Amino acid sequence: MSFDTPPSTGCREAPVLRERGQHEVFCGLTGIIWLHRKMQDAFFLVVGSRTCAHLLQSAAGVMIFAEPRFGTAILEETDLAGLADAQVELEREVGRLIARRPDIRQLFLVGSCPSEVIKLDLARAAEKLSVQHAPHVRVLNYSGSGIETTFTQGEDACLASMVPSLPETDARQLMLVGALPDVVEDQARDLLAQMGITDVAILPARRADDPLSVGPNTVFALLQPFLGDTLAALERRGARHLPAPFPFGAEGTTGWLRAVANEFGVDDATFERVTAAPRARATRAVAQAAESLSGKSIFFFPDSQLEIPLARFLTRECGMRAIEVGTPFLHKNILGPDLDLLEAGPQLTEGQDVERQLDRCRAAQPDLTVCGLGLANPLEAEGLATKWAIELVFTPVHFYEQAGDLAGLFSRPMRRRAALKLGAAS
């Protein structure tokens, strides 16, 4: 199927299997790993246990002496038992941190499973600390707990916490919402600027003093499909959401840019002039990587919330066949345009009952399974090729110039599996 032609029947109204059983999730604290690189004068202070500290240290691979812009305020046994005033201790630690690191302009108090279990009021602590350290440092809080959430919701909670304190504006502007690597963000800005759209704000901004405001004339386009709480927070501020496919691959990027161009009155000739060359490059790059994907089947476990846009990309641009597309949360107001483009056929699931889903995956024997770290090794041991869902969040995959890299993330496990089989046969 040419991806210029929408399918006759999409998946927006397809039945959804909703499961609420045992689920496999990765901790929302991991969002700090990409957020602290994006926000250059922010610090993320996790209020949690030594386990939280070990998780971040291992996930980030940062040595202690490198002075990363994240850390953990350790809850000791006396805190957990209520024998010490954790609020007082937290204020003291924040004071020491800010005195030692005068470069910090934004400080996020990040809740964890332990701090939530003992009902530590980080919202009140953030309010009090903001007053103490204003105007140099703004203190906010959000939850990174993984008790009932998936790992990408850490970014959603972080961005949503920033929205209420954004300055008000009546200016007509476009806001891009979602953390991207700087080089990818610059590519997006350049494409928009070539179309004449220059009044563009980014949430999150790279620095605290970068111009960022919101109001009734703000139109925002999401860059990540897991930002449901941030969307709601922006709408409460009067901003309007611009529905669009997510900018994965040539088709998704063109659809996303087209939605923005239509909103801001960009004529067809200008749009074609700006997008024709990078779209052609993306199409060629995807076609090269997709040679080993065409005709193959894929099964998505719910993990990153990127599953539906990725299924659209892989089926329409890479020729794959989706058996099941699971996602932790299915927000149709966010994912509707991608669902419209996803050909009817795959089973859509929301939430997870991991044992039942494993049974369905084993019965289907897909050529490639996208899943979390905890399931990948066991499935590989059973003979199924897998792709780690978390890698799709850490790797630059948005917009035209990364389209071939995105397809390559899926083709590499297929080529590796083929090479292993060839080696075993010889």
From TrEMBL:
Pfam families: Oxidored_nitro. GO terms for biological process: light-independent bacteriochlorophyll biosynthetic process; photosynthesis, dark reaction. The keyword Lyase does not apply. Transmembrane segments: none annotated. It catalyses: chlorophyllide a + oxidized 2[4Fe-4S]-[ferredoxin] + 2 ADP + 2 phosphate = protochlorophyllide a + reduced 2[4Fe-4S]-[ferredoxin] + 2 ATP + 2 H2O. SUPFAM superfamilies: Helical backbone' metal receptor. It is an enzyme of class 1 (oxidoreductase). Its EC number is 1.3.7.7. Pathway: Porphyrin-containing compound metabolism; bacteriochlorophyll biosynthesis (light-independent). Its cofactor is [4Fe-4S] cluster. Signal peptide: none annotated. One of its GO terms (molecular function) is 4 iron, 4 sulfur cluster binding. Keywords: 4Fe-4S, ATP-binding, Bacteriochlorophyll biosynthesis, Chlorophyll biosynthesis, Iron, Iron-sulfur, Metal-binding, Nucleotide-binding, Oxidoreductase, Photosynthesis. [4Fe-4S] cluster binds at C27, C52, C113. The keyword NAD does not apply. Residues 27-384 form the Nitrogenase/oxidoreductase component domain. Binds 1 [4Fe-4S] cluster per heterodimer. The cluster is bound at the heterodimer interface by residues from both subunits. Protochlorophyllide reductase is composed of three subunits; BchL, BchN and BchB. Forms a heterotetramer of two BchB and two BchN subunits. Belongs to the BchN/ChlN family. Component of the dark-operative protochlorophyllide reductase (DPOR) that uses Mg-ATP and reduced ferredoxin to reduce ring D of protochlorophyllide (Pchlide) to form chlorophyllide a (Chlide). This reaction is light-independent. The NB-protein (BchN-BchB) is the catalytic component of the complex. This is Light-independent protochlorophyllide reductase subunit N. It comes from Roseovarius mucosus. The gene is bchN.
